[in-house]
Amino acid sequence: MATTAAQFSPELGLVDKTTFIKKIIAANLPVANNNKNISYYNVPAAFDIEVSSFYQNGEKRACMYVWQFGILNWVTYGRTWEEFAKFISVLSTILGLDDKLRLAVYIQNFGYEFQFMRKRIEWDKVFFLEERKPVYGLSNGVEYRDSLKLSSKSLEKMGKDLMKYKFNKRVGDLDYQLIRTSKTPLTEQELGYCEDDIRVLLAYIQEKIESDGDITRIPMTNTGYVRNFCRKKCFSRYKKYAGLMSELTIEPDEYRQLKRAFQGGFTHASAKYQGKVLENVGSYDFTSSYPAVMLTEKFPMSKSRLIREISDASQLNYYLNRYCCLMDITFRWLTPKLSYDHPMSISKCTNALSPLVDNGRVVAAESVTTTITEQDFRIYEVFYSWDEMTIHNFRIYEKSYLPKPFVQAILSMYKDKTTLKGVEGEEINYMISKNMLNAAYGMCVTDIFRDEIKYENDEYSSTKPDIDEAIDHYNKSKRRFLFYPWGVWVTAYARANLFTGIVACGNDYVYSDTDSIKVLHSDTHRDYINKYNETITAKLDKAAEWHHLDSSEFSPLNRKGEPKPIGVWDYEGEYDRFKTLGAKRYLTEKSGEYALTVAGLSKRSARDYLVREWSDPFKGFEGGLHVPSEWSGRLTSTYIDEPTHGVVRDYLGNVGNFEEYSSIHMEPSEYEITISQEYQAFLDRIKGIKEDSW
């Protein structure tokens, strides 16, 4: 078998299955070996299906009407599952596939195809992170992999981001509302659409093969890239790293507490501006917020120590100022000091007595219990007052900067992202570095105690692993290079940084989302921005000195030769008009162009609907807005786990049979922007009330 790289030069156009097999036989496909004594054909391969969803006697049904399969330069197709079974059997035979020689076949959103395939294929192994969402599945030497988990992109975006093998996926050439069966004639345009889906995947995987070295080096998920990169940096540059990891261990009860304390980014709108059309709203963004705090802040760097009793405020402040602290805390008669936002999430609270809630955020409460870090406590001191508090399970960690090789890995990714952006010929490396930097934080908070998903006899089951065993395995792992508490503090530090902006902008603060704020009178807040940037620059210099690194590494030059320090506020410009209806719900206008962000709605089509239906889209963007299914971009999926069969008439009037062992019915769904009763009650309550009387 050949071991060199294959020649990738797509022969556009579908070929029949017999011709496809002949081309594969003649190709002498190359092979690559991994470190587990398993060989893979070192070529891109992809599979996809097209499906019709419909109703039969009032019941939801779905049927596959065409499948596409591609290897290297060639794409073929078939119309039935019986054809596919025969095709894949022949292909496996001529390629000599078995447990030691495999063909990696990529499927965009494997979970969807798996629902149709799962009872038709005898699986050797399927690995899940979540039920119905397989990462990969192995059958007779064919290893189906999920390209969506690898790329985190839609096929359309994947096609646009191709750097070397340009091939854009066609959009809108296949009307999914038309019912088709395996007997429905397909036009050249429709078949071309089907082919495009495979061509984009083949080009994407070929670029990965070339950039990563060979197909065995492509991880299963996007996070796998940064995990492998950082692990290699840590263990190769610091001989004592394994020893450090052996010291950084956690206990089961501590892990449960850390999970309670973990929060993501802060996304919220100032209730005083909810529903109002504002003019000249400025936007500031942090430059790589999470990576920045990983470089500049100090993190838990020891086993935790449980402090049995906090006797007074002086003792509490001693620990808060010198250690990373973790605590369960109960506040009684909690009231707000500031009116424009409230950091405490009701979803992270227990035993909340008489809480006043602002769109998921606690404004006041007679009593409330939550789990926080010292960073959260300092934030709460600024935003709230309370009559008394009780602290339980107070843990402290010695704190220090993250290990130097880990810091250098993050710096390397940030430098690549900064220096390669916009440089002709470096597009692929830029996208790789950007994706890796974005994933650097996520791997720090991978769940240690995750349900084990099993798939046996066509049935799913989940079991909770023994937490003592899971934590023990985590503590003793020789490959571990991360410490779960680090991830908890990454977001805590980032939220603390964000809240400095919210506090500084005061009543001009309008909206925030993890690493950005929208504010009125943005020019008047430049002093805060400049002072913050001076502070973060000093932190970068201090971290560089501590690690014995050149401070310029924290501020690489872009292609224009300009320094781009990590973690600073960047001014992103000003919206002519801005309106928010709450978290992840806002409409903007800039130079006559509208942009809509609503979680669960298509940004493009829902915006177009607003523009079409209202002369001023801001008047339509209100609570109660109903977006019809054809404009929402939303799809409702219904899993059908029982066999279905019957006869259905297609859109041309042809009658065809269908039979699926399991399937998914999908249909467009409407969307209505609702304001919860609780949130509306809060909005009504604050109307006309002085801020200091909340």
Structure characteristics:
694 residues, seven-stranded antiparallel beta sheet, 33 strands, alpha+beta, Nucleotidyltransferase, domain 5, 21 helices
Structural summary, described in words:
Among the domains are: 17-220, 2-Layer Sandwich (Nucleotidyltransferase, domain 5); 303-397; 580-693, no CATH class. The longest helix is centred in the first third of the chain and has 25 residues, at 188-212. The protein has 694 residues and is α+β, with helices and mostly antiparallel strands. 38% of the residues are buried. A hairpin with a 2-residue loop joins strand 4 and strand 5. The chain is globular and about 80 Å long. The strands form 9 sheets. The chain has a 7-stranded antiparallel sheet. Strands 13, 14, 15, 16, 17, 18 and 19 form a 7-stranded antiparallel sheet that branches. It contains 21 helices and 33 strands.
Q: Which spans have pLDDT < 50 for at least 5 consecutive residues?
A: none
- Indicate the proportion of strand residues: 25-35%
Strand order of the largest sheet: 10-23-24-11-25-26-27
* N-to-C CA distance: 76 Å
Short synopsis of the structure:
Helices cover 35% and strands 29% of the residues.
Question: What layout of secondary structure does this protein have?
Answer:
Elements: H1 17-27, E1 31-33, E2 39-41, E3 45-56, E4 59-71, E5 74-78, H2 81-95, E6 101-107, H3 110-117, E7 125-130, E8 133-139, E9 142-146, H4 147-151, H5 155-161, H6 188-212, H7 222-237, H8 241-247, H9 252-261, E10 267-269, E11 278-286, H10 289-296, E12 298-300, E13 305-307, H11 313-322, E14 324-336, E15 349-353, E16 356-358, E17 361-373, H12 374-383, E18 384-385, E19 388-397, E20 399-401, H13 404-420, H14 427-439, E21 452-456, E22 459-463, H15 467-476, H16 484-505, E23 509-513, E24 516-520, H17 526-547, E25 569-582, E26 585-590, E27 593-598, H18 603-613, H19 617-620, E28 626-627, H20 629-632, E29 634-640, E30 644-649, E31 655-660, E32 663-669, E33 671-672, H21 677-686
Parallel strand pairs: 2-6, 6-9
Antiparallel strand pairs: 1-2, 3-4, 4-5, 7-8, 8-9, 10-23, 11-24, 11-25, 12-20, 13-19, 14-17, 14-18, 14-19, 15-17, 16-17, 21-22, 23-24, 25-26, 26-27, 28-33, 29-32, 30-31
Helix pairs in contact: 1-2, 7-13, 7-14, 10-16, 12-16, 13-14
